[in-house]
Amino acid sequence: MKKKILIVVTALVVCAALVTGGVFGGLYASLSNRLKISNELTELSGEYENVILLIGDGMGPNHMKAGEAVYGRDFEMRTRALMTGEAMTFSRALVGPTDSAASATALSTGVKVDNGEVARHKGENIKSNMELAIEKGMSTGVIAAEGVKGATPAGFSAHANDRNDLDDILETQLVSKIDLFMGGAKEYYDEYKAKIEGAGYKYFTDMKDFDNSADKLWGAFETIETDSAKAVSDTPTLAEISVEAIKYLDEKSGDNGFFLMIEESYIDKMSHNNDMDGMLSHMLAYNETVNAVVDLAEEMGDTLVIATADHETGGLQYNGEAASELNDKMFTKEHHTKANVPYFIYSKLDGVPETLNNTQIAYICRYYINNRPAA
Ligand SMILES: [Zn+2]
Asked: How far is ligand 1, taken at its centre, from the CA of residue 315, in Å?
């Protein structure tokens, strides 16, 4: 009897091992195949002096549609784009969606890493487009509504084993040679004021103190206001600080061009909380920012602008509801999903497919950082 039980148990264990091994083996094979997708876009051509990438953290296609229901018309982010499609966001995670650190790294370096890693994989730094732009003599800037310690801005301006290693993130940002950092989290950065100034940045917390003549700028505000009617100089809007940053970088770079990343951070956070009204206010602020940036880019000329997202958050469902019908229950999850996210390009580029890998957005930025008109 005992022998029989032993045989059955052994058989069960072997079966379980085979099934698990098969499932994980299959997952592993599908991941390594996905990681082999080429990022090259061989038909890109032409030159741009400046490159601006905007990221709506957590913005899936339904976040846009719900926002447009409130806005009463299509977003300018959509209508002004000359090319549009969707981007795949997966990281190296075998199961489950990407986090913002891995997706920022993909968008900034063109390399897929594990969730949590910040422009670094298994302890090795990965060169970001920001670093390439600095090498090329371009001016550079990083802006984030939540503050530049967040995983998304960090993926463009820092290197760290983990997004929570905030000291490593700040230390690497301070020696990054990036000309401008701006965002929220004043309370956090006030404690590091001396250190930030020691690294050569002019530290300011009110737009009245934005100094166009400063060599490097570090702005940290109490909060980034979503409603332009309520914004004042120490709680400005994302659109406002982005416009000032672009003017500063354009002036500073002369003919060398600049590379700027702008993140609206709270579409994600509000979606984690399944807070529809909160999400919508940030969705509208993101559209306002993209619109203002495209206005300025058209005025300056020679500027490539791309707007996208890093992943979808909240599994938001939208089935044509009117503005008054939108509610928190339309979120079906409290975390990120694998849904593709929209991308919008405000120029006509050759050979960009409708469905992109997010690393190909990094490829496009890199291509135009490398291909600029002679200064
Ligand atoms: Zn998130």
From this structure: 12
